[in-house]
Write a structure and sequence with these properties.
The chain is α/β, with parallel strands linked by helices. It contains 7 helices and 9 strands; from the N terminus they run αααββαβαβαββαβββ. A 7-stranded mixed β-sheet has the order 5-4-3-6-7-8-9. A two-stranded antiparallel sheet has the order 1-2. Helix 1 crosses helix 4.
C-alpha cells in the first residue's frame, strides 16, 4: 500500500473535526452548549496532528483517541484538545501559559489562536522536539522552557489564560498567582476522579471554579 499524501491527510483531518462536532453535541448538557467555537474548529482543521506523534502512530493521528508519545505520556484525544481550547477561549491579543508541552500539538493549536504562547515541559526530550518541530512549521509565537510546570513561568507573568494538560489535586497556587485579573485557567482537577475545571479570576482577584466532565490525565509532575 502506498503512503498517504497531503490530500488524504486533509480528508482525515476534516473527518476528525466532524467527529469532534458530534461529541460536542452529545456532551451538550454537561457543557452547556452544543457547538464549539468556530476559531477553535478552524485551528483543529489547520494543524497537522500527524506530525506531532511518533511516526508509528501517524496513521492513527486523526482518530479521536489519545496516542502514546513516549515516557508513558500521551497526546490528548482531539475532542479533548478542542474542548479545553474552547473553554480557555484564547484571543489574538492574549498571552497564554501552557503547562505540559508534550510534542507540541496543543501548543500549536494555541499558537493559532493567541498572540503569544509560553509553554513549560518537564521532559527535556519533549521540549526539544516540540521546539524544533514548531520552528520547522514556521510557528514563531511560542516560547518553550524545561522545568516544573507547577511553578509556572514567572518571568513572563501575568498571563491572560493558562492551560494545564495534567491533573493535580488542586490548581497550583503559583499558577493562580500568575493569572491576570479577568483571566482564566483550565485544567483537570483530582486524582482518582478528575473533573475538567474552569477557574475564572475576577477584577478583584477572587476565584470562581466550575467543574464540567470527568476526564483522565496523567498527574502533574514536580521537581
Amino acid at each position: 500500500m502506498k503512503p498517504m499524501d497531503e490530500e488524504h491527510l486533509a480528508v482525515l483531518r476534516r473527518h476528525m473535526v466532524e467527529v469532534i462536532a458530534i461529541y460536542a453535541d452529545l456532551e451538550s448538557e454537561e457543557l452547556g452548549k452544543a457547538v464549539l467555537n468556530e476559531r477553535v474548529m478552524a485551528a483543529m482543521l489547520r494543524v497537522p496532528r500527524h506530525l506531532f506523534v511518533p511516526a508509528p502512530a501517524a496513521p492513527f493521528a486523526y482518530q479521536d483517541m489519545p496516542l502514546p508519545i513516549g515516557f508513558d505520556k500521551t497526546v490528548s484525544q482531539p475532542f479533548m484538545v478542542a474542548l479545553m481550547t474552547d473553554l480557555l477561549d484564547p484571543q489574538p491579543h492574549e498571552a497564554v501559559l501552557e503547562i505540559g508541552t508534550g510534542l507540541g500539538y496543543q501548543t500549536a493549536i494555541l499558537a493559532e489562536l493567541a498572540g503569544q504562547v509560553w509553554s513549560v515541559e518537564i521532559i527535556e526530550e519533549f521540549a526539544n522536539h516540540a521546539e524544533a518541530l514548531l520552528q520547522t512549521l514556521g510557528i514563531s509565537n511560542v516560547g518553550i522552557r524545561i522545568g516544573d510546570g507547577s511553578r509556572g513561568w514567572p518571568e513572563h507573568a501575568p498571563f491572560d489564560k493558562i492551560l494545564v494538560t495534567a491533573a493535580a489535586e488542586e490548581a497550583p497556587p503559583a499558577l493562580l498567582e500568575q493569572l491576570k485579573p479577568r483571566g482564566r485557567l483550565v485544567m483537570p482537577v483530582g486524582s482518582e476522579v478528575q473533573l475538567l475545571t474552569v477557574i475564572d479570576k475576577d477584577a478583584t482577584g477572587q476565584l470562581e471554579a466550575r467543574q464540567l466532565i470527568s476526564v483522565r490525565f496523567s498527574q502533574l509532575e514536580a521537581v
